[in-house]
Amino acid sequence: MTKEKPTVLVFYSRKNRFSFNALIASLCAARLERKVNLVWATNQEELYRYTISSPRPALLLFSSTSPEKEEKIKVLRTIKNLQPETILCGGGPHLSACPEAFFPLATIAVRGEGEVAIQEIVSQLVEGRLLHTHHQIISTGPVDLDCFPPFPHELGIFGPIEITRGCPFACAFCQTSFLFGPTVRHRSLSNILEYVKIMKRKDLLDLRFITPNALAYGSPDGRTPCPEALASLLWGLRKIIGKKGRIFLGSFPSEIRPEFVSWELLKLLKETVNNDNLVIGAQSGSDTLLRRMHRQHNQDDVLRATELSLRAGFKVNVDFIFGCPEENEKEENENLATILTLSEMGAIIHAHTFMPLPGTPWGEKEGTPLSPRTKKILGQLARKGKLFGQWYTQERYAQILRTN
């Protein structure tokens, strides 16, 4: 009699799909997807429906960012009520920083990169060694991107290709350096082109990439550009997909640090990519606040990068964070003056309100409430089509964090 395969239920959403693409690709690389019944739930209703109808408990894979924490805990509690023996395995930014936040609901919390961990966990499930009562934290180290596919193409699932992981800058508000480490790791050119060829065979000719800094590809330390490596990547992609294909680099999900922008690299982008816009990560227009953030660039870098990018013919979206910890009136005024200058130049502001993220230097700091003047200017720019973003929703979430 054939043994019934155990079920792996993936809570797959718009926010975490790129991460799960990499994790399921890791299972495919080890041929483990053949040994389980893989089920995808793209929303809570699908998740509950499967849990109710399934005769056997599943291994549920979930991920959580910090803003999602409370909602995810409610969902997991419902799952446990519906099927107490479900094995809950979580990862992502919040669990990497605060795994205990999901105990005792979670069975397993993975801290860090999940490609190797997911293979071991599913292997234990297949062998019958994984128990819903065995609570554990698995801490992982950096992986070699070339050892794992960027997406599970065997299952017909494709997406952006992660070309760089890790960030050397360790900004005070950002989890990237603390989740993936300060050492940059690049997927090799040959490996990237291999997966682009696979996409081309499926007539998938729109290429997007995941990287903390699009212009840092190939840089040994991630702190200075490597124009030769970037040129080899972009012309290599173009050679495969031809004029019919489209390359998107420097737009979401691959923004650019301002100090990396040069006329040489903008000319390269203009010749090779199809996105008409670039996303530049400024985060502040105050030099003192930029130093406290540990951004390691200044306001002049932001203005220069924006001016050059606009002159090269790109639309420019510039990321800013408002309401940072201990932000004083002088810094607020400098910030507002900079976004107004950028707006007059023709840039669009992408506005965020500071939210403390665990595991970062500012993880336990309170943000500064946005002043009426800041709110007024942000609102005016938004009504003129010169500003967008979830800053208002994030401000309300930050207020909730301050009162809890």
Label this structure with key terms:
14 helices, four-stranded parallel sheet, Rossmann fold, 16% strand, Transcription Regulator spoIIAA, alpha/beta, 404 residues
What does this structure look like?
With 404 residues, this protein is of the alpha/beta class. Helices cover 39% and strands 16% of the residues. β13, α12 and β14 form a beta-alpha-beta unit. α1 packs across α5 and α8 packs parallel to α9. The radius of gyration is 22 Å and the shape is globular. The mean pLDDT is 93.
Annotate the secondary structure layout:
Blueprint: E1 7-11, H1 17-29, E2 37-41, H2 44-53, E3 59-63, H3 69-82, E4 87-91, H4 93-97, E5 108-111, H5 115-126, E6 136-139, E7 161-162, E8 164-165, H6 176-180, E9 185-186, H7 189-201, E10 206-210, H8 227-241, E11 246-248, H9 263-272, E12 277-283, H10 287-293, H11 299-311, E13 315-322, H12 329-345, E14 348-353, H13 372-383, E15 387-388, H14 391-403
Parallel strand pairs: 1-2, 1-3, 3-4, 4-5, 5-6, 7-10, 10-11, 12-13, 13-14, 14-15
Antiparallel strand pairs: 8-9
Helix pairs in contact: 1-5, 2-3, 7-8, 8-9
